[in-house]
Specification:
Elements lengths: L19 H14 L7 H9 L5 E5 L5 H13 L3 E5 L2 H7 L14
Helix pairs in contact: 2-3
Length: 108
């Protein structure tokens, strides 16, 4: 049998974030990759209520004020940090929810 030689592990360098939004993008990408990201109203509300969430990120331009009130109240009730980002389209991209057309351009 041929000897098996293990390749050295690939070195993954952490990218230094430029600003808070860039840091959030990196954290969300890593959470998504490790299956630790909860998305959508029902799942998020459940995670907040069960206190399994460590951080909540909400878009400031969310269309439904009741949604924002619910998430804000659950975060305050359970002492979970909440961060607001300006655009929901950016948040959707970072969370892996954005839709792209066949050319790779972001759909509205």
């Amino acid at each position: 049998a041929a000897p098996v030689v293990a390749a050295p592990p690939a070195v993954v360098e952490d990218v230094q974030p430029v600003d808070v939004e860039d840091a959030l993008r990196i954290v969300l990408r890593k959470s998504l990759e490790s299956n630790g990201l909860v998305r959508g109203l029902s799942e998020v509300a459940r995670a907040l209520d069960r206190r399994t969430a460590h951080l909540c990120i909400l878009a400031e331009d969310c269309e439904d004020p009741e949604y924002k009130k619910l998430i804000d109240a659950l975060c305050r009730q359970h002492n979970i940090d909440i961060i607001a980002v300006k655009e929901r389209t950016k948040l959707a991209q970072w969370a892996g929810l954005a839709k792209y057309d066949k050319d790779g351009a972001l759909k509205k």
